[in-house]
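Page 37, continued from 36.
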């Protein structure tokens, strides 16, 4: 009897120990899974922000194949395709996402962005119209401004640009777009001011510098603005100014500016040399 009791106690101990091990293993597995989810979330954020766009596309393509029902991975793929300038593919992915019951307003804005890059303006406008007016973000107003510009709704465009600028700490690209809008309307003074403001936020934004030269040249002001430029940039801006002068009939001024551009450039400036030769011949 005593042996029997001892055996039962041993059996109970083994069962209890096994139960503990299972519980501990289960808790460990759960903890490990949670850690993996955190790590994956961080990796997804990295892929969407600082990783090479094409590498990010490859990463999310593989992830969505392995987890086709994960909406967050589908979003990552759509955003990565946008970063990689593959708007057509992005619009297909994002178009499916906005049909999902868990789609967000950010998804609709990303979809509109992809459609704009495809040149599908009406569809993009419709996608933005699906976003309630109370949802106010920088990206939403940036896209609204671009669409209003395309529709030549200038007052709306200006209002949207103004709002977008106030919703970001890095408004250089929006100010440049707004300036180009003013340039296309013939408001050269205001365009130049906006390009100058864009440069104060991002001194490396060469597009704004080049546009500023176009705005000055359109008023036959053929002097470069006082802005921070490298030697190569200065030569390129002189070339832009020269072409602007020639286009407006000021050929001799243009030839002189081309000569300055060639002399300023630290290397062989083929485009300027070719333009000058064409004029002289």
């Amino acid at each position: 009897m005593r042996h029997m009791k001892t055996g039962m106690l041993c059996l109970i101990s083994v069962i209890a120990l096994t139960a503990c091990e299972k519980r501990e293993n289960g808790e460990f597995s759960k903890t490990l899974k949670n850690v993996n989810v955190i790590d994956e979330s961080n990796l997804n954020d990295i892929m969407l922000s600082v990783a090479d766009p094409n590498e990010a596309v490859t990463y999310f393509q593989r992830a969505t194949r392995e987890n086709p029902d994960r909406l967050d991975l589908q979003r990552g793929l759509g955003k990565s395709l946008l970063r990689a300038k593959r708007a057509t593919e992005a619009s297909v992915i994002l178009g499916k996402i906005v049909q999902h019951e868990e789609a967000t307003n950010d998804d609709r804005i990303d979809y509109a962005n992809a459609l704009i890059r495809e040149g599908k303006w009406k569809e993009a406008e419709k996608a933005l119209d699906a976003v309630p007016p109370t949802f106010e973000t920088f990206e939403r107003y940036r896209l609204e401004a671009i669409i209003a510009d395309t529709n030549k709704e200038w007052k709306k465009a200006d209002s949207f640009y103004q709002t977008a600028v106030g919703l970001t700490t890095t408004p250089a690209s929006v100010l440049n777009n707004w300036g180009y809008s003013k340039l296309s309307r013939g408001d050269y003074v205001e365009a130049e001011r906006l390009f100058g403001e864009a440069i104060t936020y991002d001194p490396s934004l060469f597009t704004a510098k080049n546009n500023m030269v176009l705005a000055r040249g359109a008023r036959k002001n053929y002097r470069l603005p006082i802005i921070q430029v490298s030697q190569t940039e200065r030569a390129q801006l002189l070339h832009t100014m020269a072409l602007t002068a020639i286009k407006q009939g000021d050929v001799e001024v243009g030839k002189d500016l081309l000569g300055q551009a060639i002399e300023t450039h630290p290397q062989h400036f083929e485009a300027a040399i070719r333009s000058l030769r064409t004029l002289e011949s």
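The chain is about 80% helix and 0% strand. Flag for discussion at group meeting. The mean pLDDT is 88.
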